[in-house]
């Protein structure tokens, strides 16, 4: 598949500040952490004001029902063996041999791929598992890599090499072509004003999506307590909203003001929900509309509406209702279809001896990738096709990526939001 084309500016992507939209308007009473009582009160108020909302027709092209293995609830899964693939001793030996082979080539780290990290017996199995992400349940866990047997540099190479069989393209997550991110509490070393995302705290992360097709998380270490990784089918949430609140489907499919936190332009407009070739794709992060810690929502841009505030809460609480908690263990790699699954994390507690530390890759498998809606083509182009392999950077230590820095931490305008 050729690189996705960069779409030309359209009304949907317009960033012209409409001063009239700011006149007399203000941000709804909503924060990053969802408040169920406020959500229910807002819902009751809006329906009382306009009962016809329940009769809103679906936007053109949006299905009345999604039927697929991607539609599931947490209670549908009875045992983790249904989604976990356990690596055996011979496969771990094959991975170790692939690492030695890669080192023998003496090439830049960014060239780690299926040809330079050969897995003759495990590779075909991983390719089958990649297919599962798009046409099956949409997620799986690979268990488990022996983290303590390798240096930090080598375990990162193993993670990247194994993951190249799930998605051959790695997305750029930060400046200087950084393709690897560390998810770790940094509040002991960074002031609150420098942190603009919960990924760098012990705080709860609400249900959201990242950027890219496939999100991979690798556990270098788990928390002393808490930190459960949770996923939820966005397709199941969609079906529920179609049945109970079709007006919110319409709201989600219309343009929203995405804060770039002082960037140029100061905001971008696009929908959160798309229908493309009989597939529903949702792309959103709640903090972009509510702010978080050192990165509050900009006051100089149009606020979200009451309908949008209700939609954000509806997404979260329905995702929470249908979620599956994963038993994420040290050395596990979690892969999820970011276009059909929300993910979240419980709050957690670290100790001096046991600190939660995950690595993240954004992957794309062109053999199985879905067609993208036009508003996502340019961001995907930037993620997957602008940096050359030799430029790929794999940070060895945690750092706050530019799009997640607080206003006291030199944020760079949400370039990779």
From TrEMBL:
Entries under Pfam families matching the protein: TauD
InterPro entries noted in UniProt: AlphaKG_dependent_hydroxylases, TauD-like_sf, TauD/TfdA-like
Ranges where the record places region Disordered: 394-417
Gly residues biased stretches: 406-417
An annotated Gene Ontology molecular function: oxidoreductase activity
Keywords: Oxidoreductase
TauD/TfdA-like domain boundaries: 112-362
PANTHER family: FAMILY OXIDOREDUCTASE, PUTATIVE (AFU_ORTHOLOGUE AFUA_4G13850)-RELATED, GAMMA-BUTYROBETAINE HYDROXYLASE-RELATED
Annotated protein name in UniProt: TauD/TfdA-like domain-containing protein
Species, as recorded: Ephemerocybe angulata
